[in-house]
Amino acid sequence: DAFAYACVVPAYFQVVVGGLNGPIHTAVLVSAKKGEVEDGASTRRLIESLSTWLAVPAAALALALFCFPGRVLRVFAPGLCGAGSALELSIAQEQVRIMSPC
Predict the structure, then answer these.
(1) Structural domain tally of the chain?
(2) What is the DSSP string of 19-55?
(3) Alpha-carbon gap, residue 50 to 91, rounded angstroms
(4) In 3D, which of 99, 102, 83 has the Cα closest to residue 4?
(5) What residue numbers bound the domain in which 83 lies?
(6) Cα dist. 45→22, 31, 52, 74 in Å?
(7) Which of 7, 14, 53, 83 has its CA 20 to 30 A from that of 61?
(8) What Rg do the C-alpha atoms of the chain give, in angstroms?
(9) 28 to each of 35, 50, 95, how far by Cα in Å?
């Protein structure tokens, strides 16, 4: 169960960002194709700025997950913080720290 709880936030982020062929990837490709017809330099600037704007929140989320796994688990998995589940909570916190860069 600890692994399932630890996967909640990274899995949610994966759904939102979508990875390859996800919503952000598709939007960038459509924008790049339109810009490619007009100007290749503007397409490059668009992709660089989007990459920066996506990397900053992703890094902030990874840092928050690494530094505050207990608080994050209390929000996303309130049932894990009950009596008698201290070992499971500890395991889930370590797994969140391990998966935070993902």
Answers:
(1) 1
(2) STTSHHHHHHHHHHHHHHHH-HHHHHHHHHHHHHHHH
(3) 35
(4) 99
(5) 2-99
(6) 21, 11, 11, 40
(7) 83
(8) 18
(9) 10, 8, 32
